[in-house]
Each structure stands twice: as structure tokens, then as C-alpha cells.
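Blinded run. Sample ID left blank on purpose so nobody reads anything into the name before looking at the predicted structure. Input follows.
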Amino acid sequence: MTPRQRFFDCLHRSPPALFEAALWMAAEHDPDVNPQHVLSNFKDLQQRVSAGLPMLPVSELAQPLLRRLNDMGFAQDDFTPLRPQVALLNKVLELRRGQPLSLGLIALELARGLEIPLVGVNFPGHFLLRVPGADHLLDPCGGRRLYPNDCRELLQRQYGPNLKLSAEHLLTADPVQMLQRLSRNLRQLHISHDNCIGALIDAERVLELGNASAADYLARASLYQRLDCPNAERFDLEHALMLSDDPIQRLRLTERLGHLPPNSVVH
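Blinded prediction complete.
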């Protein structure tokens, strides 16, 4: 099977193999990545993390787990501009630097192996974690507790004062949602480093995962434009047009479609 097929095979298991699926995403970009080898080494990390945890009920170990990871050097990457390696789990495990989502996925896999209750939260702009039933969220980058006011402050820091905190921002993320977010992150990181082929791999995965937005089709259309594939670009622009409910965007998409050559050669 191809890495993409193995990726979806992980999602079809019960329960889905979230962490392994993310490793197969990395294998799509680097054929030298061996997810089974990474998983084998991960057991050693789990043992070292476990050895440093306090003697507490498992329901109270999520924050100590995150602090333990931070003590071991796992932290948010502050290199500018961000590089794709911050979202590729094999690189994050190697360099111990990553985005909140990639660090969160590592924490979730450790928690799963240690039977510590922990779930992901697709908070806008900064992936978060939560112990089911707790009155606070946890920052995967160090374990800081975030209460509602902290979440409002984080949201405003990311998006400005006009975006208000809502219950939708605090919903538990399922594996598909987390992997789609990771795919979108990688797509943008590859675009920002002028790697159109790498970005296209991620853009296709975003759409294959389902529930794609107009922005997702537009992102792939722009990649096809840069790669001089007008038929594929037209396909994605038409889908973006169908999904868009913004009249200005719809007008611009219609104009853009009108500028594409008719009956162009298939690439």
C-alpha cells in the first residue's frame, strides 16, 4: 500500500490510529520515514515520560505529563518563518520543537498509552487539550491551564477583539478533524516555502478527508495555477464557487473562471 492508503487504513481502525496516521503523512513527504520504526522508538519515550510522573490518579496526570514533556525539551518552535518540520511528527520527535497541534498529538499518544484521559480541542489558531469533565483547557506547549478568560485572551491575541469566544471553539476534536487541521497546516507551510508539490500532497489529503471548504478548493486551485494545470484549476474553482456563500468571492471566482482557457490540454 502507498503511504496515503496506509494513512486511511489507520483512520478506518477502531479506534482510529491517530498518531500512526500522522506518521504516514510524514512518510508521504519523506520516503525514508518508517512509521513502524518511529512507533517502536516512541515506546522508549513513553517509558521515560512515565518514570518522571508523580504518583497520582490517572485523571490528574494530564498536566504533569505535559510538564514532563516540556522538561524533556519539547516546546513550541519559535523559528521564523515556521518550517514544515514543525508539523511533521518524525521531525518534531527528533528536534523536540513543533506547533501546538504536533506537540498535542504526541501528548495524546502518550496519554493513550499510559491510560491518562485526554482529548484534543480544535481551538482557533492554537490547538489545545482537555481532560474530559475538567473546567479548564491545557496548552500542549508546557501544560498551562486555560480558563474561559484565558481562552478569550488567546483568541483575541490571534484574531483581534472582534472574534468572540463561543462554545464551538471548545468542542472536542475527532481524529479526522485533527488530521485535517494538520494537513492544512502542512499545506500552508509548504506553500510558504515555495514547495508546490509538497503543498499539493497536503491539499489533496485535505479534500479526501471530506467536509472541505471553499477555501480548501481555492488553495488547491492556486497550486494548480502555479503548476500550469488549467483544467485541474477550473475543477477546483467550480467547486469553490458551489461552496461559497460570499457574493464578492463568488463574483471574483466567476471572473477567474472566465479567464481560464477553454478546452485546455490535460496535464
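Unblinding after everyone has recorded impressions. The longest strand covers residues 119-121.
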